[in-house]
Amino acid sequence: MKENLIYLDHNATTMIDPEVIKKMDQIKDIFGNPSSSHILGKEARGILEDSRRKIAELIGCKDSEIIFTSGGTESNNMVIKGMVDLKEPEKNHIIISAIEHPSILNPAIYLMELGVQVSIVRVNKNCLIDPDDVKREIKSNTRLISIMLANNETGTIQPIKEIAKIGREYDIPVHTDAAQAIGKIPVNVNELGVDLLTIAGHKLYAPKGIGTLFIRDGIEINPLLHGGGQERGIRSGTENVIMSVALGEACRIVKERLKEDIVRIKMLRDRFETLLFENIDGLVLNGHPEKRLPNTSNISVPGISGEDILRNVPRIIASTGAACHSGKNKISHVLSAMGVSEDVAIGALRFSLGRSNTEDQIDMASELLISCINRMRG
Length: 378
Fold this sequence. Notes:
Blueprint: E1 6-7, H1 18-26, H2 39-59, E2 66-69, H3 72-82, E3 93-97, H4 102-114, E4 117-121, H5 131-136, E5 142-146, H6 160-169, E6 174-177, H7 189-192, E7 196-200, E8 211-215, H8 241-279, E9 284-285, E10 296-300, H9 306-312, E11 316-317, E12 319-320, E13 322-325, E14 328-331, H10 333-337, H11 342-346, E15 348-352, H12 359-376
Parallel strand pairs: 1-11, 3-4, 3-5, 5-6, 6-7
Antiparallel strand pairs: 2-8, 7-8, 9-10, 10-15, 12-15, 13-14
Helix pairs in contact: 1-8, 2-8, 3-4, 8-12
């Protein structure tokens, strides 16, 4: 059954790379606590630090600036909640954007309820943020600017380098959620100029349940978890060595083959879009046509529910621009922030390609969608 499926939902999650599984299997018998001083603890510590080094090499930072977490949600919560002083919440202000992942938006709403001031920057119709809009929101008590690097729905890549420059001008730390970007485009923390950066393992062919947070030396952050003081005292809890190894290996593979993946996957995506737009009238591309991830295509079929389309093409695994709650379609907050009309947003489909996709799959997916949509239109 699974062999017949065409998986085009890599922005939701990726399958674990076989080399990652092999690496995990190699160290499955290493069970020591990396905080222990005996030989088994030191063995586990060495493996953990080797993984930390591989992750640091991918994004161009020091090993000591990488903190292991359980994934993107924890990393983002650590930043949003940890960069403000909750003893005096009303004296703190943070800036985010309207298209952030819920793991940024919801913690920000939580802080607002406690009295923290939160500014939400708008995007234009192409899902792009204007750095000047960020600058206009800065206050004397701004503690953090957090803008995602690449949007998970449209793939639009944000001008983080320019935003980070503004942050430096005002001495405000800048965080970027790079969960969707790592593994799809080159990411270097020094070239971007960011102070904090989120990585989620399952977005780059590692398992779910592992991630990291880059914290530049000199940036102070209040820990969410208090305990034994692991991970520089920022994230207490015995480290998950085997999952950390998985993420380290996944990052090594990305560093090795990223250029090749970008060229091949972008070619497949462009072929896919060409076939669809040439054979289906009235399609709408959501997001920036050029400044986007090479694997992502968010396309709307106005007047037809994206959910209905995918229901009629069960072989294709993809996402929609609206979720069904209590029998009603709820439009994506990202498309809503872009000003996309309800008619167009309901018909949105997000296709996100990955390493496993082939030209034959793309041609078959196109054929199935063209036939289905034209048939639904009568």
